[in-house]
Amino acid sequence: MNAQVITADRLHVYDLPDVQQTFIVARPDGLAEAALTLEGIHCGGCVRRCEQGLKDQTGVRDLQVNLSTRRAQLVWDPQQIRLSQILSRLAEIGYPAYPYDVRTQENRYRQERNRALRRLAVAGFGMMQIMMLAVAMYAGTFHDMDDAMRGFLRWMSLLVAVPVVLYSAQPFFANAWSGLKNRQLGMDVPVSLAIGGAFLASCWATVQGGGEVYFDSVSMFTFLLLLGRFLEMGARHRAARTSEDLINLLPATAARLRDGQEEIIPVTQLKRGDTVLVRPGATIPADARVIDGISSVDEAMLTGESLPLTKQPGAKVIGGTINIESPLTLQVESVGPDSVLSAMNRLLQRAQLEKPRLARLADRVASYFVAGLLLIATLVGWWWWQHQPQDAFWITLSMLVVTCPCALSLATPAALTAATGALTRLGLLITRGHALETLAKADYILFDKTGTLTLGKLQIDEIVSLGDMTSAQCLTLAAALEQRSEHPIAKALMRAAQTDNITLPSVTDSRAIPGQGVEGMLEGRRYRLGTPEFAAALVTTGVPEKVLQVDNSRGASLIMLSDEQGVLALFRLVDEVRPQARAAIAGLQQLGMTVEIASGDQPAAVERVAAMLGIQQYHGSMSPAQKLERLQVLQDQGKIIAMVGDGVNDSPVLARAQVSIAMGSGTEIARSNADMVLLSERLDRLVDGVLLARRSLRIIRQNLAWALGYNAIAVPLAASGFIAPWMAAIGMSLSSLLVVLNALRLSRLKPATLADSAPQSMPPDTAASGLGA
Amino acid sequence: MDILYLLIPLSLIIVTGAVLIFFWAVKSGQFEDLEGPAHRILDDDDPPESPPGRP
Fold first, then answer.
1. Residues on chain B bordering chain A, Cβ-to-Cβ distance under 8 angstroms
2. Do the Cβ atoms of B40 and A122 come within 8 Å?
3. Better-scored residue on pLDDT, A67 or B3
4. What is the average pLDDT score of chain A?
């Protein structure tokens, strides 16, 4: 994803000692070790190519690639090779890699996973043993088993159940306890009660030699629940890892000028008054004032404006924006808390705090259920105590076991895990747990324009030939003049020339005037291409008035091509709308959602896009604060809003909306504040996303209804003392199985738009990992 | 059926052994990557050198 930004130059950052100390582990034998995140690893072949690719590099001692996590462990000799050389070699063979700090997430994931695996193993082995003994005991009920043997089998079951309850089921007890301390009745409370109660009662029965034992139910219940949570954890880790990978880990650096010498330093060390040099294509490191050079600066990410702005000496530039045309020398004006980006961050933090939360269906149902269950259990126990004190304990207990909330506690996680897997395959990544449920309920969808509905790059809309040349000839001339420029307009012309397979003649004596255009000689004639004023100034014979008054109300940018004899052509350029945008908007509207555009770009440009896509509501020239206000107004009307955006200026709104989706190519700050990330960049996936979210919600409801219905039948039967332990065990397993199978339907669904093509940006193997960890 | 008094405790000891082996496997990273090794087994560790002249 970040491959295009990473060039060999920028990798040198990783050789700076300040930067290195955050992720390198120095080993006692003089070697260095670092963990890398690898991009583009899809299959075993990739792993092999990576490892082979570094074989010929002296100094590289070891590279271990982990295919499941797409991470690698690198060991090298810092005396023989620099880290940046290894990284650029990896990028060369097609697997850009970045070091990351292992001490953070990954280590925690591994520990969590290993702990869960061990608990699962103990519960699994224990369950198998106890089942075996239980079958013998059930059989013994029908053929006379002597009491000594029954007692022995019970003691053996008890022995196996002890580690299952004390070790494997320990997280349930811990969660229930911490929930109770926070005055919350979570799903873990009845789970703990059922496991703990059944275990203690069975122990009592074993010691006393009477009553019933439930060791088999206890261990199976523990195992199934742990399995569900293990799968859920796998899905959660995978999503978290992918979203971490999205964050470009390259630390920001700046080229500081000191006594005419250029030195690369981390941005954090910049001070007010420092002079920095920013090359074309590089990000401006801090809010600053231009002291030398003229260039255009792309502020789209901060303001939503689709065209670059010209900056001359004296002009202010904002940190985080991108210099496009030519080198700029800047004097830093503010860093840290005073900068524009920090101000944006404060807006963002406030927005996060104010984010409205929808109460989660499952949590709500669970806490009612638990409260109700405890109440009924107390009443039933009390009633039996009054009438038949000797049976009261057993009946109350069997009721707790029968209503064993297994199905209920599996209902939501199973559906969410399956849906998350299916969505990941669509290229829509969920980063926050509530996203799916909220997306299903959303009825209003707010789009940013630049970079979200549009590709954020210009495209030629129309060529108006005004002289005697054909438009193809004009395009050839224009592209030839612009062929060395990095300006978005130049790129648009070059792309158009490439599509038409035009070979470009070479231009002599060309010069670019930032913010105005280019001038150059071609076959003895002088041409100019740029703003109408700039191009018209070359014409010696005068320009007809009507040419200069061309209609430009449609939010396009106009550039003019002229020679000394007259104006040759006008090019109208517009920001290209994403190919699937129209279908996506139509689909969303069909689902009953109201679509609105909130953009920072010129109102005319917003209007044009809105008209093209059939969107009735749109607002242009909005600052981030105004976008937030608009959101507030809508939320006050009771709308549940989904926000789709990509820029820094969208991030406060993304944080504040009930559910938010960032574009995969968007800014880091937008992605990290969104509940979902649209990795595939295909807007039509949003329609599938909403559909799938609604289906998941339906399935969750079905599951909850089933679990509650099952309990509604089982509770009265158990309360009246009709349920034998084996019936309880079978009923519980069946209802859990049904819930899981129902949830799995989600991962088999083939959304409508999936038929036309396979998702492009997701590696093929994630397709197989719907539920797998 | 008295043999059960020996066999069942014996089976429990074996299960304990299995659990310990599993713990060791988790600790030594056998479950870190469940996809890679399946592919890796298909790769030759050392690409064949120039073929020896003898048959």
1. 1, 4-5, 8-9, 11-12, 15, 18-19, 22-23, 26-27, 31-36, 38-40, 42-43
2. no
3. B3
4. 79
